[in-house]
Structures are given as C-alpha cells and as structure tokens.
C-alpha cells in the first residue's frame, strides 16, 4: 500500500481551493480531482508500505513541535506530462526546512519511487485539476479557466496528516500544529 504525508490549509483557504476544483467540474471540464475525495493540500512525502501506528506517533510528535505557518498561494502551474493543474504557495526556507525535518523524522520509511517528494527534489503544489484521463482539450480548457479565475490567497497551514493512497483517498490521521 502507498501512503502520503499531507499539509493542510485552514478551513477558509481549503474552501477557496476546493471551489476552484469544483468550478472545473461545474463547467463540465473534468471531475477527476474531486473523485479522489481528498482535501486541498501540499504533499510533503510519499511512502511505500508503512507501519501506520509508528507513523501516527511520529506525526503527533512532529506536529506538537511545529507551529502553524502562513500559506500565501501566489501562482498557477502545470505538469504537462500528467496534465495536472495546480496552485503553488510562495516558498521560504522555513517551509523547505519543515519538509526536510519531516523526512529526517520518518527516514526509516521507504521512499523508493517517490523521489519528487524528497528534499531537494520537491515541487510543492496543490492540485486543482487532474485531466490526464480526460479528452485532450480538457487540460487546455481547465488551464484557461484557472488562469482566468485565480486570485492570490493568503491563509495558513494548520494540520499535517497521513493518508492512504487509494481511490478515493483514505484519510487515516491528522494532527493540528501549534499556534
């Protein structure tokens, strides 16, 4: 089984990001992202099979030792090979350090095959549309919609969680970070 560690936004920011994905579905462009039933998030790490209990204990301690962080979402991007459309936070050294510390804390877990979520290779992004399984035109229509509708968002990263990468995504555990 495959797992991910995700960083979650405050409720208002999450709602704004979800509404962008919903608009793509409402315009009958693509519903694939919504079908995964995942919250808007940044994926910090992905792992192959993990000991869930051990991972949860480590995440509890990690969250308890970290403060809520500002989330300023300032750009739109795309992975052309997978036809994924996303928004990205403005990154700073603290966020990169947060992700590096998480990986150090969970270093005994298997990251094979997930190199794009490892420190120094990470592309922080919040997916808004997954159009790879749709007709070709969906990627361009969804991109156009997001480019026209996107407005910068200021919020916070408030929780960290463990999910099982299934269809739909199964949220196993979340922990709030400190104020």
Compact overview of the structure:
34% of the residues lie in helices and 31% in strands.
Tell me about this structure.
This protein has 179 residues and is of the alpha+beta class. It has a single domain, classed as Cyclic phosphodiesterase (Cyclic Phosphodiesterase, Chain: A), CATH 3.90.1140. The chain contains five helices and seven strands; from the N terminus they run βααβαββαβαββ. Strands 1, 2, 3, 4, 5, 6 and 7 form a seven-stranded antiparallel beta sheet that branches. A hairpin with a 4-residue loop joins strand 3 and strand 4. The longest helix has 16 residues. The N and C termini lie far apart (33 Å).
Which helices and strands appear, and what pairs or packs with what?
Elements: E1 3-9, H1 11-26, H2 32-35, E2 41-47, H3 52-64, E3 69-79, E4 84-89, H4 93-105, E5 126-130, H5 136-149, E6 153-164, E7 170-176
Antiparallel strand pairs: 1-2, 1-6, 3-4, 3-6, 4-5, 6-7
**CATH fold assignment:** Cyclic Phosphodiesterase, Chain: A
Low-pLDDT residue spans = none
DSSP helix count? 5
Radius of gyration: 16 Å
The topology string of helices and strands comes to EHHEHEEHEHEE
Distance between the termini: 33 Å
Number of domains: 1
CATH domain class: Alpha Beta
Q: How much of the residues is beta strand, in percent?
A: 25-35%
What coarse outline follows from CA principal-axis ratios?
globular
Largest sheet: 7 strands, antiparallel
Average of pLDDT: 94
Helix content: 25-40%
How many extended strands? 7
